[in-house]
């Protein structure tokens, strides 16, 4: 199992996603394309350890060291499976999904679900790979209420090699794009719920690295001037929860507005 | 009895108007601030803009759209945050809606 390090976790907290390029082997990718099924039906809330037979596609996928390590780092040991799905987008078929966050509005400040998205084939721009918006996961919106937003500056239109796995925070704004190619596109999705407090679940030996701060401070081109500061404020609060460091801050945004001295002047 | 020929009126096709809509999301409440998001809707039916169809904004600022002939018809109000939710982030705040009226064959 390859746990994430603190810099990778910080990037996830900033971007709301983690991309692992071509981590799944060709034979498993071929099996995925052939079966187009993750495994037997899994009821909501099934412990992962009981969800998928070892020989199922999901069972094998979740044993890929990079995948297992990322999942463990993000939601901890033995999460529950919320649901899974196989998304198939026919050539020149269908239309783009409205930009949305999955499920319903979910504003938990100290916990998050992750969604694993697995792409068993190379995805080109024309194939309509998943659109996602970096740094959108802390925005409080309900499902497709963001549908009016067709394009945001710095959006990510996924283009990736076969065997790529992307983990996203439950709040990320995303949508399947229109498939303009001659190739059927497949995406396998599993949503996981944590069953433990999400604190220092990764390899945190590099927690004090300057790269962690740099990663947490990343802003994105679509952020409005003023709201970008609120993004950093909320991100600092999430990092406090994930690390237990109650004094952590980014550029003093949280500390400044929390300063309410109570001691009388002498 | 009139010997005049019947009058034949040839009615030219009447141009029909359709609306094109451009939505720009700007970096602040000023119309000349930079574009951070955009959407298009085409009332002529000749194009079908959709989610994730472009990485390049049509204009750099809202005023550039005006200079290109778009007419502003709605802008977001400036509303104070709800008490207790001053630090929440949610929808984009600075939305400007433009239109162009175009002629199509009747």
What secondary-structure arrangement, pairings included, does this model have?
The complex is a heterodimer of chains A (266) and B (106).
Chain A: H1 6-15, E1 17-20, H2 26-35, E2 46-47, H3 48-51, H4 57-61, H5 65-75, E3 80-89, E4 114-119, E5 131-132, E6 151-152, E7 156-157, E8 164-169, E9 174-175, E10 185-193, H6 210-216, H7 227-243, H8 253-258
Antiparallel strand pairs in A: 1-8, 2-3, 3-10, 4-8, 4-10, 5-7, 5-9
Helix pairs in contact in A: 1-6
Chain B: E1 16-26, E2 35-42, H1 62-67, E3 71-75, E4 95-104
Antiparallel strand pairs in B: 1-2, 1-4, 3-4
CATH fold group of chain A: Jelly Rolls
Bin the strand percentage of chain A.
15-25%
CATH superfamily of chain A: q2cbj1_9rhob like domain
Tell me the total number of β-strands of chain B: 4
Strand order of the largest sheet of chain A: 1-8-4-10-3-2
Mean pLDDT of chain A equals 97
Largest sheet of chain A: 6 strands, antiparallel
C-alpha-based Rg of chain B, rounded: 22 Å
